[in-house]
From TrEMBL, chains A, B:
Protein name: Farnesyl-diphosphate synthase
PANTHER family (alphabetical): FARNESYL DIPHOSPHATE SYNTHASE
Family: Belongs to the FPP/GGPP synthase family.
Cofactor(s) listed in the protein's UniProt record: Mg(2+)
Source taxon at top rank: Bacteria
Upper classification of the organism: Bacteria, Pseudomonadati, Thermodesulfobacteriota, Syntrophobacteria, Syntrophobacterales
């Protein structure tokens, strides 16, 4: 195995675990404020949305977004509604993906999936709610620090979010994923699928943060590059975990991708070449950050951490 | 029956049918431009979205939006992306409402519903696509005349759209509608349900148009008032049509609300009082427009037309 300097973990002074935990708490507090429990007639669907939104997610996308804003010289506060919007869009996609008509999953993060608890109708609506409110959160001048951020920047962030989650992004990836379960696909198609299904939103997290934080074009492009490689490394290590991971740590049974005939990297490339490819993307992700100072250290550490992840 | 002047139809010089047809064509052409057919890997979901988007809808919401922009002294062009976004949100809501887990409808406008043609998974994603792209359409400065409209106005329009279609709007109405099928509800709940499920988006159509056209607060509020009464009149006449309408003209069997135990106005109030209530809301809708000149004539004519509608 090629122990390239950028992929060893002992040269970072940053305590990644403590950083992620502090950021996660910050995002959770903001989400709680932006989507509080409801006692209205329609409270069931709000409860269902909150059930999945507060299911112990790692808040990776929000953390990438907040950090990107700081990396380009802005403040995390300028990107806080965007960070929460990203988590809401991510959560909506999980709820709809788990539906019986889609992946038909009963468990997510060790708990029953949304439709198992609330039924299909409410689960569909809870996903719709999260998607809709994500855009409302980012657009509404009365919320958070929105009014302090230039309207043009917010519109640009909204556009990035819509493109990453729409027909040229996440939805494209999901359709191809569904179709690939019943036919043979090659590596290029699998890569195209992942770039759209998960990569687009991860990349958008960094781009939105950079735009809202006032980054220049060069800074924004560097963070987008980082995001693209991080997204692919994330997907490959996810596929590897499905085969090699500990079901207790992951909260779901291992081998579920294989059982569903999902076209994974290990299935197409084998374990060794998949690990090598994950490492290559981590290296490139870190490399994209070379013009940034120590504020980008969390992003470097997150990329390297993917090679050691257990869940 | 009280033949109030504002509800007779012979004092309008406007040819409503020709006006609606010209506006419909304008909206259809814009929708075709904003959501063209795709030959990408993910073309299936785009095709599914277009199947429902171009299913012969009347384009009521877009027409209200474009007209509102003109009524306050702006141009229809300033509201064109908003008008199309409204139709996309409306169409998404129909696709998801028709799903087996929701209303389980096989026919819509005389054609098989989306999931009957494309399957449930693609239908869910086609709805998600339309909802997501609606926000992208309104936010993206590279589309239509967006760049010519002040960013603050566009953010305000986006906020109105998100609120009207989100948990305090359409989704709230849909949840209450679902729940009311299995329990007794009173008139106040039915009204609350309709105000959210259909009224919010109709009202938003007018408010968005007024905002994008540069209306002042008083003008915007007058159009919102018109929209509220129009929305209720629309719902009541819709309920009446389900009982009294001609199935061939409507493209769906009559009596379907009764069969599903839907709580309609006629079911709660009887036919006579429902007709009277529709007329009252039409009067109030027209009354809300009293400070506007002849540019508001199409809005007056649309309201009056509801009392004569056949489909």
């Amino acid at each position: 195995m090629n122990h390239h300097a950028s992929t060893t973990s002992h040269h970072a002074s940053l305590d990644l675990k403590a950083f992620l935990e502090a950021q996660r708490q910050r995002v959770d507090a903001a989400l709680e404020r932006f989507l509080p429990a409801s006692d209205s007639l329609e409270k069931t669907v709000v409860e269902a949305a909150r059930y999945s939104l507060f299911a112990g997610g790692k808040r990776l996308r929000p953390i990438l977004c907040l950090t990107a804003a700081e990396v380009v010289g802005g403040t995390a506060d300028e990107a806080l509604t965007a960070a929460c919007a990203l988590e809401m869009v991510h959560t909506y996609s999980l709820i709809h993906d788990d539906l019986p008509a889609m992946d038909d999953d009963d468990l997510r993060r060790g708990r029953p999936t949304n439709h198992k608890v609330y039924g299909e109708a409410v689960a569909i609506l809870a996903g719709d709610l999260l998607l809709t409110e994500a855009f409302g959160l980012l657009a509404d001048p009365r919320i958070g620090s929105n009014a302090a951020v230039a309207a043009e920047r917010r519109l640009r962030a909204l556009t990035i979010l819509a493109r990453a989650s729409g027909m040229q992004g996440m939805i494209a990836g999901q359709v191809i994923d569904l179709e690939s379960e019943t036919r043979e696909v090659d590596l290029a198609t699998v890569e195209y699928m992942h770039i759209h299904k998960t990569g687009a939103l991860i990349s958008a997290s960094l781009e939105m943060g950079a735009v809202l934080g006032g980054g220049n074009d060069q800074q924004i492009q560097a963070l987008v590059q980082y995001g693209r490689h991080l997204g692919l490394a994330f997907q490959i290590t996810d596929d590897l975990l499905d085969i090699e991971g500990d079901p207790d740590v992951m909260g779901k049974p291992s081998g579920s991708d294989v059982a569903k005939n999902k076209k994974t990297y290990p299935a197409l490339l084998g374990l060794a070449r998949s690990r090598e490819m994950a490492r290559k993307h981590v290296d490139r992700a870190v490399d994209a950050l070379k013009t940034f100072d120590e504020k980008a250290e969390p992003l470097r550490a997150i990329a390297r951490y993917l090679l050691e992840r257990k869940a």
